[in-house]
Amino acid sequence: MQNHKPTVEIVLPVYNEEDELEAHTLKLRKFVDTQTNYSWDITIADNASNDSTASIGEKLAKKNGINYVRIAKKGRGRAVKQLWLESKADIVMYMDIDLSTDLKHLTPLVKALTSGADIAIGSRLLPGSEVEKRELRREFISRAYNLMIKILFMTRFSDAQCGFKGMTKKATMELIPHIEDNDWFMDTELLVIAEKSGYKIYEEAVRWVDTPGSTVRVLPTAMGDIKGLVRLWKTRPWKVIKKIKYC
Fold first, then answer.
1. Can you give the residue ranges of the Glycosyltransferase 2-like domain (predicted)?
2. Selection from 213, 201, 202, 9 nearest residue 95 by Cα
């Protein structure tokens, strides 16, 4: 009798990514095919793109182990939450389509999730991480933001925003229904609530190379993050989760 291979579904949330979608999805597929200890699926989550993303995604979906889902409303957090909750895999993950994080870190995250961690994340701020080509302004904002999280919530994780994360299906079903944000703050909200609720978070120091021409607007995103932090500070949803978890 063969041992059960843990199943892993990787969600790629995209919006107007016609230039990178095909090459990077196939690069990821080629990589995971070499990681034979696990069974892999890749799902492209199209956030209402209005370029050629849909046609490219549909073409890729004809290949083995690649799925394409179109979501009518925008929001990276919305896409990740929906696909994670719908997944049948043992482990759910997501990564940014630019593949800024070196794929060599993917298997260590999965291994952590099969060895007791509830959540596993890449970190650009841990000792041993390598960050290349990142604009100084973005580096400063990232460090200041993560310091703010630590001060406000006394958390231990180092990098809330790296687009390279995974969860066990059990933790997903328990935590995601409590995550309100549908955009970029989703990552922070998930990690703060998870740690404050007693879930185990594994961090992997990663090699990360910035991609020129990022479409993320720094100021609006930062303002949304600050509003999210204020909401979390006021509502403290982990208190409810703790009661449910330990009843």
1. 10-174
2. 9
pLDDT for residue 214: 59
Handedness of CA 187, 14, 178, 244 (dihedral sign): negative
| Residue 2 domain flag | no
Per the structure, the count of domains in the chain is 1
CA distances to 77, 93, 117, 118, 175 from 112, rounded to whole Å, are: 23, 13, 6, 8, 18
The per-residue pLDDT for 137 is: 86
Q: Is residue 180 assigned to a domain?
A: yes
pLDDT in tens, 184-233: 999 999 999 999 999 999 999 999 999 876 556 667 788 889 999 999 99
Residue 1 is assigned to a structural domain of this protein? no
Reported pTM: 0.94
The alpha carbons of the chain give a radius of gyration, in whole angstroms, of: 17
Sign, Cα dihedral of 145, 81, 209, 32: positive
CB 130 within 8 A of CB 104: no
Average pLDDT over residues 107-112: 98
Helix or strand or coil: residue 196? helix
Own/partner long-range contacts of 51-58 (Cβ < 8 Å, ≥24 apart): 51/16, 51/18, 52/18, 53/14, 53/15, 53/16, 53/17, 53/18, 53/21, 56/18, 56/21, 56/22, 57/14, 57/21
- What domain range is 213 assigned to? 7-246
